Amino acid sequence: MNRESGFRLAASKIVDLAEAQARAGAWRESGSTIVYTNGCFDLLHAGHVRMLEAARGQGDALIVGVNGDESARRVKGPGRPVIRERERAEALAALECVDLVVIFGEETSLPVLQSLRPEVWVKGGDYQIDTVNQAERAFVEEYGGRVALTEHVRGVSTSDIIARIRKLSPDCD
Questions:
Q1: CATH for 29
Q2: Alpha helix stretches (DSSP H) within the chain
């Protein structure tokens, strides 16, 4: 596969919610288990990759919800995201473990969960069952879905990386 065809493959994994719902339905009809996770994924790092690999291991198809730029800004604060939504989505879509990427504008992914109804909703190990969004958790559990938490990768976070960069170059703000 040449570079351009690899890019086209990754770009084809970035879909709107209606398309994600249709594909999830088709996969489910063929007996596949749908897994969903979400986040800002601002600076893709090893902690993200390990979480995504672990999420993919929970089922047959992994759909990743990515906070859009405005949503990420509301969640993470001023100056974030560092990377624009389309570029974050492309980086995620390039990973073999990711089947689809959906960009959403809300602060929570409840509308995505309501549309996709995944069998498994995965959150990173920086969460505990009582610290995940409780409305999202309740929705997933109400229809019989399962909430899974991955192992936490200590010392690896976007905020940590940004802090280290600022320390190296205090004038970069």
A1: 3.40.50.620
A2: 3-12, 17-29, 46-56, 69-76, 85-93, 110-116, 134-142, 158-168
